Amino acid sequence: MLGIALTPGEAHDVRGYEALMDEPAPDPKVLVADRGYDADAIRTDIEARGGKTVIPTKRNRKVQVPVDRAIYALRNRIERAINRLKNARRVATRYDKTADSFLGFVQLSAASLWLSHFVNAT
Description:
Layout (H helix, E strand, L loop, with lengths): L16 H5 L8 E3 L7 H9 L3 E3 L14 H5 L1 H11 L3 H5 L5 H17 L7
Parallel strand pairs: 1-2
């Protein structure tokens, strides 16, 4: 089972990047992320791993990097999946005290969403 890097709700997105990339999984070929991940360190790390970044640049960046809009549009699917997971109140408010119990309920909610595609699918 993969570990979980649980950060406080007010933590910046970049704080969880290193823990996520340290997981025992294949390196991404493409990293699709929002502006919160626009950092030189992240772009350099992904390129060193042999991948490509599809991250819109922040407005205050002097050199604007173009983004493949067709690939970036796929990020919407992930956002919608996270929104569906957050329909479970326990996931949205993080009632669980430990990261393991929170991960367990996220997995349970994900399995419930997945199974709903097979019920009455005739």
